[in-house]
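in:
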């Protein structure tokens, strides 16, 4: 028994070392750094306790970024998950050109984040962008989509949903194809409608997949930085500044290590709370009963 235990630990040791080196150790050092000032030149970091967190509570940019991220998450998460489920249901049926439709849905996922940002940057470009050309064709007024506070964040949300829905669709499609076909046949014999079968059988059986997709959707909603850097750089007037982009600016543009570490700890705590809520609330409903 002891030999098997040692062999088991030796097998997971490489992965465990990588996990500690690139996940747990950086998280621990970041928490420690959040209690110190930023070292500058020959001046070493100085312990200040919770002063960095107190300063963060009075930082208007932080609250703007937090509010933007909340709006971004509340729109992108349900929109991408629902759209992915609808697409999976569509391509799971016998439709003409089903393989091409599946490929078309999944193609945005394979594109690099920077490429996607540049493609949509052309769509949103004032005067000669695709959207302004379409509006002009129908007699609409041309608009600076990324330069207006009211439309900049919604434009980013559209890009994110377009990018992520195809990725989530793959998981729903795999779950749908793994369902026993006997269930649908039995429901048809009992005279159950398609909507009733979807609500009573298909949707409950998809709950484990939905939980997995939701966890990934929440993570994606709080780790966006590529599109912001390429398309708006947080503007106009911090209208598209998200938490991770604010961390990026604090750490690599202003070289404020203390602020970046404090923001990172807050983001980790927020993600931990959301993960606890997801597994605590939805985790009890992932099995069909």
């Amino acid at each position: 028994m002891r030999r098997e235990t040692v062999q088991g630990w030796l097998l997971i040791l490489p992965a465990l070392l990588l996990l500690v080196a690139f996940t747990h150790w950086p998280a621990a050092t970041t928490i420690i750094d959040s209690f110190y000032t930023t070292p500058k030149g020959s001046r070493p970091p100085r312990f200040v306790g919770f002063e960095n967190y107190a300063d963060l509570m009075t930082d208007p940019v932080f609250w703007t970024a937090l509010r933007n991220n909340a709006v971004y998450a509340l729109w992108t998460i349900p929109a991408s998950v629902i759209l992915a489920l609808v697409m999976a249901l569509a391509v799971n049926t016998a439709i003409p050109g089903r393989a091409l439709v599946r490929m078309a849905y999944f193609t945005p996922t394979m594109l690099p984040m920077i490429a996607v940002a540049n493609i949509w940057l052309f769509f949103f470009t004032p005067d000669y962008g695709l959207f302004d050309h379409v509006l002009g064709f129908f007699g609409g007024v041309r608009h600076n989509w990324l330069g207006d506070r009211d439309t900049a964040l919604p434009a980013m949300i559209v890009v994110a949903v377009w990018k992520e829905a195809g990725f989530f669709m793959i998981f729903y499609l795999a779950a749908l194809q793994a369902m026993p076909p006997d269930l649908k046949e039995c429901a048809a014999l009992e005279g159950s409608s398609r909507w009733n079968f979807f609500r009573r059988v298909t949707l409950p059986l998809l709950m484990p997949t939905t939980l997995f997709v939701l966890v990934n959707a929440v993570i994606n909603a709080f780790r966006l930085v590529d599109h912001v850097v390429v398309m708006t750089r947080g503007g106009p007037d911090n209208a598209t500044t998200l938490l991770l982009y604010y961390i990026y600016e604090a750490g690599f543009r202003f070289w404020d290590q203390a602020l970046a570490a404090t923001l990172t700890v807050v983001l980790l705590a927020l993600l931990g709370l959301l993960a606890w809520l997801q597994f605590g609330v939805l985790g009890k409903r992932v099995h069909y009963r």
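note: DSSP finds 13 helices and no strands in the chain.
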